Amino acid sequence: MTQFAYWPPGGRDASRSQVIVRSKHWRGLVMRTDKLATVYQAALHLAAILIWLREQSVSTSELRCGR
Q: What is the spatial distance between Cα 19 and Cα 35, in angstroms, rounded to a whole number?
């Protein structure tokens, strides 16, 4: 397992639940319209990556603005 230097307030479990809440915006993932587990898992990974990238862009823009 990879070690991370920083977890958001609330720890790792809170971070996981936030990702689940954000992934609910992806209607296809919530309804699981795909029959194949591999397709569903790939879509879940894609959603997690896009959520993570969005969070990274927000945090770097806050650093640039001096917040």
A: 23
19 contact partners, CB below 8 Å, separation of at least 6: 48, 51
User: What pLDDT, in 10s, does the model give residues 33-66?
Assistant: 667 888 888 888 888 888 888 888 776 666 566 5
Q: Are 22 and 8 in contact (CB under 8 A)?
A: no
Structure tokens given for 56: 């990274």
pTM: 0.50
Handedness of CA 37, 43, 44, 49 (dihedral sign): positive
Location of structure tokens 């993570």? 52
